[in-house]
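Hi R.,

Here's the input for the zinc ion complex you asked about:
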Amino acid sequence: MDMSADAQDTRCASAAGKADLLGRTSTRQESNSLRSDGRNVPIDPAYRYDMHCHLGFVPHPREVAEEAARRHVRMFSMTVNPAEYQTMHTLLNSCDNVRVGLGIHPWYVEGSADSLSPKTQAMLDNVLAQLPQERFVGEIGLDAGTRHGSTIDAQHVVFERIIAACCTSDQAMHTPDQVQQRKVISIHAIRATDDVLDCLERYQCTVKNDCIIHWFSGSSDQLQRAIALGCYFSIGTRMLQTKRGRAYVRTIPLDRLLIETDLLAQMSTNYDNEHLFTSLYDAYNKVESYRACDLTERIAHTSARLLAYNVDPRR
Ligand SMILES: [Zn+2]
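And here is the predicted structure with zinc ion in place:
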């Protein structure tokens, strides 16, 4: 990855390829467009991408996935523990527009640095066993906020073990003629941005994998550090409610900019699926207005590449 070129890249995508906001009437065909690295990759600019959501928390995940497909929406759906991953992987296996991440959310970690709880240890063992075969990882991370800071030492152990495995586990799984497969990792970082970045740096994780910081909430110095490391950033409407969040959106290189809803935040039995799509379109519109340009096609390129749509599978 040419970080310096990426970091300097602030060009806007052309206005061509703007999809209907509701994705219902589009008949747009695939176009051959140029990737930032110069290779031609066919991308359908009509697609919109929710790069961090939680379909496991909606009452009927398959319904939402199928509705998303009708609207030309693709999703990177997080899981909070391996049991949820198993359920969602089975449920959404035939939904090509959804990628399910394997994760242990920091809120679900229990124990201390010296002794993870038996439940957490079992979750970690399960994730580490599955990781060599998985391309999509999330949600993982560190949360030192007031509600979850008491387990931060245990969170460090879990996060570091998973990051270390993401950086070393592939070699044994591939024949010599195959290129090592990069993983796509969605990361939660609350009041622990430097600790997250230290860990990524320690294992050269952003060189070996594609790391997305979701809902970035660190300082501007930490943002610059994350950009220099090669991180991507998924941005949703709640990040855009703060002045600092809006300033960050104007700073992040266009090649690293992604959109998310982070919905649902928790399990719900009474949820209007429309809210998820409205939030996604709203985030796209707001980010485009803050950057004063049409980013839909640009974001589609980056997102499609990360989620392995329309790219050489040997990549
Ligand atoms: Zn999340």
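One thing worth noting: The beta strands are 31-34, 40-43, 48-53, 73-77, 98-100, 136-143, 184-190, 210-214, 232-235, 257-259.

Cheers,
M.
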